[in-house]
Amino acid sequence: MHYPDVRGQQQVTGNSPVSSGDFDAPLLEGQQQVIGSKSPLSRLGTGEFWAVLGRYFTPPQVLTDRPASIPELSVYARKGAWTARLDGGIRATGVWFWYLVGLPATVACRAVEWIFQRPGRLAVLAALWALLKFTSPGGWIIDNLLSPIAHAVAWALL
Questions:
Q1: Could you tell me if 121 and 114 are in contact, meaning their C-beta atoms sit under 8 angstroms apart?
Q2: What is the distance of C-alpha 122 from the center of its chain?
Q3: Does the pLDDT at position 31 exceed 60?
Q4: What's this model's pTM, rounded to 2 decimal places?
Q5: Residues 8 and 84 in one domain
């Protein structure tokens, strides 16, 4: 198997970046062995394992790295090198997670980011919020529609 290079991810053949090519996923009946023979846990005490694991969990440089686009993130969920196989339960769970949690959260965060990038956008949003808050129908909309939705989203994501 060959996974695509997605925004700075190293190309990996058959294994996840954490495994550094030495992890074999459990084989299903009739499936051929991928590559390597050692489990990453067998190298738990080695510096290489911890270095790879550290790179995996290091966030991007916010001031210099461009965020991946929505299509790139979708491709990474479906074909990226975060698991050893392109099929199976782990891949399916990751793809479902992307579509049910990752995609809505990414879109919401990018909308907030877009609003806060320019003071004029924020001023327009603040004016609309004030208009809603201080009118009778607007107060009802905020109290009975927007606040419960915001609380549910915050509860689900936080």
A1: yes
A2: 26
A3: no
A4: 0.57
A5: yes
Decide: residue 130, CB within 10 A, 0-12 exposed, 13-18 middle, 19+ buried.
exposed
Assess whether 111 and 129 both reside in one domain: no
| Nearest-angstrom CA–CA distance, 36 and 46 | 17
115 band by pLDDT with thresholds 50, 70 and 90: very high
Q: What is the pLDDT of residue 59?
A: 81
Mean pLDDT confidence for 41-54: 68
Same domain, 75 and 122: no
Q: What is the mean pLDDT of the chain?
A: 75
Both 21 and 75 in one domain: the answer is: yes
Residue ranges making up the domain that contains 136: 118-158
